């Protein structure tokens, strides 16, 4: 997929299908060009031999080649391979055309039936009667003419029906003759080319690869583009960098728990990473009973202290200073904060799984944390904000709910 | 989950000036052709065949135990030629994997016991699941997970893969320390 150029995919006449990359009909891996050197006599001089290269398609995994099916070799590597024609293509095309005609006709009928509001109908009539020049040059009149002219009549022959008597009967030996299984195609191979569905291996033909497209996402609330789908297959960069990881602190478990017992208070080490360029203050709290999701089956105890986390410093990798850059971070309470390392801290909390849990049940807990969010994103800039930027830079508080699976119950009570 | 601390005996690894940690038990053939760009970890019993063609490995790469990196070759009418093997930054190669690929992009995660066939091309931000076999000349596109034998697309990766891999490989390097 990535050996394609942008042109190959975007401008291909058949949507999203490549003309250069093919699937092996036998194992559906990608096909490569094989080269075969032949010695052919030079035209005119029968004694001299000329080295010539011919190209065929071959699969690196199952060793299928295009020669097995009788597809002729190409003389030049740039010559394109064509897909096997669909025997029903003409019928499908005429059906699609007829369907387009029907839908177009329906749309026009709807328009003409739609009634004009009464105050406009009279004005329009006056225009058409007393100022013919204006009517002719008006856009709506021109559009009407165009629409009526483009609607050509499309007819289609209904599909032919055959009576039961005319159907060919099965040959007599169909249940008793021996079958050569090696020459029959498997279901996956038949589904590979659904238009042809060959029964015999000698009819297998390569089918073209379909491009995987990149996702495009829009915000549900404000319809702003979050990820744009680009047809540059080689690029992993996204034009818009609005990944939540860069704005919202991440909470992770620091170490896997050695044992969890139902009803027993367990100490859990969690780490928080501050991805922003600002010092943040985090306050933790338990979820209230209404806000707790139904899957939560344990009780969590959190510290009421406010936790301060230093900003992300990208140069910290190259410098070796251990001094904290921000003076706001004082002494840490060792009962709460185990370890501090730049923009990452490890803190303690206690989780008590419910008493009725059995061995093997996953323990799920929930906590809420409030952090600051500085709205200085260059990408999300609206004209009103640019005026207000100089006035207020106070961050606003955001609250996140985190539901965690901390492990399975290992010992019974 | 954060990665666990891994320690090694202080004499068992060589730490180079650019921060690479290479095990003394690894086999690096043709070391003049092997380029480790910095802060990479090459664990014990790894084999890197720099004697066949040049091998270039990016920053913060992690090559776990018993893996083999061998440049691919192509047969021509008059013999075979070996291609250089280029591996990008922040690549994780799992234990026991055999890599014959011609090109591996950045931020790639290769699982355990994988076999990457000759002349394969793994683009940035892709993942190869454990125990999978990639046939020769396979191209693995970005943000896809390939798995199985022969490897086929089995899943997709999120857009934040680049940051996740950067974070994971940096954390691995930081936590891989001498006793």
Question: Could you explain how this protein is built, in words?
Answer:
The complex is a heterodimer of chains A (413) and B (179). By secondary structure, chain A is of the alpha+beta class. Helix content of chain A is 18%, strand content 27%. In chain A, strands 7, 8, 10, 12 and 13 form a 5-stranded antiparallel beta sheet that branches. In chain A, a hairpin with a 2-residue loop joins strand 12 (337-341) and strand 13. Chain A is extended and about 90 Å long. In chain A, 13% of the residues are buried. The model of chain A has no long low-confidence stretch (mean pLDDT 76). Chain B is mainly beta. Chain B contains 1 helix and 25 strands. Chain B has one helix at residues 161-175; strands at residues 6-8, 13-15, 21-23, 27-29, 34-38, 41-42, 47-49, 55-59, 62-63, 68-69, 73-76, 79-82, 85-87, 92-93, 98-99, 103-104, 109-110, 115-116, 121-122, 127-128, 133-134, 139-140, 144-147, 152-156, 176-178. Chain B is globular and about 50 Å long. Chain B starts with 5 loop residues before the first strand and ends with a strand.
């Amino acid at each position: 997929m990535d050996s394609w150029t942008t042109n190959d995919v975007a401008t291909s006449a058949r949507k999203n299908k490549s003309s250069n990359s093919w699937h092996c009909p036998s194992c559906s891996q990608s096909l490569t060009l094989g080269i075969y050197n032949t010695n052919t006599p030079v035209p005119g001089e029968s004694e001299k031999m000329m080295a010539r290269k011919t190209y065929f398609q071959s699969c690196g995994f199952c060793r299928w080649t295009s020669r097995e099916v009788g597809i002729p070799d190409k003389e030049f590597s740039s010559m394109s391979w064509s897909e096997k024609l669909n025997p029903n293509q003409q019928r499908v095309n005429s059906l699609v055309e007829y369907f387009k005609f029907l839908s177009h006709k329906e749309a026009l009928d709807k328009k003409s039936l739609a009634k004009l509001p009464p105050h406009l109908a009279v004005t329009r009539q006056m225009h058409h009667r007393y100022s013919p020049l204006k009517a002719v040059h008006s856009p709506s009149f021109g559009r009407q003419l165009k629409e009526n002219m483009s609607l050509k009549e499309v007819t289609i022959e209904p599909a032919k029906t055959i009576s039961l008597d005319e159907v060919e009967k099965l040959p007599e030996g169909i249940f008793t003759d021996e079958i050569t299984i090696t020459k029959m195609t498997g279901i996956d191979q038949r589904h590979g080319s659904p238009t042809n569905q060959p029964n015999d291996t000698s009819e297998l033909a390569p089918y073209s690869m379909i491009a995987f497209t990149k996702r495009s996402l829009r915000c549900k609330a404000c319809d702003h583009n979050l990820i744009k789908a680009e047809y540059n297959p080689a690029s992993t960069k996204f034009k818009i960098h609005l990944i939540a990881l860069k704005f919202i602190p991440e909470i992770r478990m620091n170490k896997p728990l050695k044992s969890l017992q139902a009803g027993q208070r367990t100490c859990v080490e969690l780490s928080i990473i501050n991805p922003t360029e600002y010092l943040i203050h985090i306050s933790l709290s338990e979820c209230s009973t209404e806000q707790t999701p139904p899957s939560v089956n344990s009780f969590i105890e959190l510290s009421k202290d406010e936790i301060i986390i230093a900003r992300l410093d990208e140069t910290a990798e190259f410098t070796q200073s251990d001094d904290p850059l921000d003076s706001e971070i004082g002494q840490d309470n060792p009962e709460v904060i185990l370890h501090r390392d730049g923009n990452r801290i490890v803190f303690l909390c206690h989780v008590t799984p419910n008493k009725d849990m059995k061995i093997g049940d996953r323990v799920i807990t929930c906590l809420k944390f409030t952090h600051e969010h500085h709205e200085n994103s260059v990408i999300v800039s609206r004209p009103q904000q640019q005026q207000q930027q100089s006035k207020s830079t106070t961050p606003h508080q955001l609250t996140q709910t985190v539901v965690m699976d901390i492990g399975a119950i290992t010992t019974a009570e | 989950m954060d990665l666990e601390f891994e320690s090694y005996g202080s004499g068992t690894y060589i730490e180079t000036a650019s921060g690479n940690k290479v095990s003394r038990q690894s086999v690096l053939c043709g070391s003049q052709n092997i380029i480790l760009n910095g802060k990479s970890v090459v664990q014990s019993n790894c084999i890197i065949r720099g004697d066949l063609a040049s091998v270039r490995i990016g920053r913060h790469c992690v090559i776990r135990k018993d893996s083999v990196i061998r440049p691919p070759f192509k047969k021509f009418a008059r013999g075979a030629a070996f291609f250089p093997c280029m591996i990008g930054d922040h690549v994780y190669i799992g234990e026991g994997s055999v890599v014959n690929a011609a090109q591996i992009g950045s931020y790639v995660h290769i699982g355990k016991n994988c076999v990457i066939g000759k002349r394969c091309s793994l683009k940035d931000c892709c993942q190869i699941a454990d125990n999978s076999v990639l046939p020769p000349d396979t191209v693995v596109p970005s943000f896809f997970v390939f798995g199985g034998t022969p490897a086929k697309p089995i899943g997709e990766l999120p857009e934040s893969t680049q940051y996740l891999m950067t974070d994971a490989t940096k954390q691995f390097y930081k936590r891989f320390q001498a006793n």
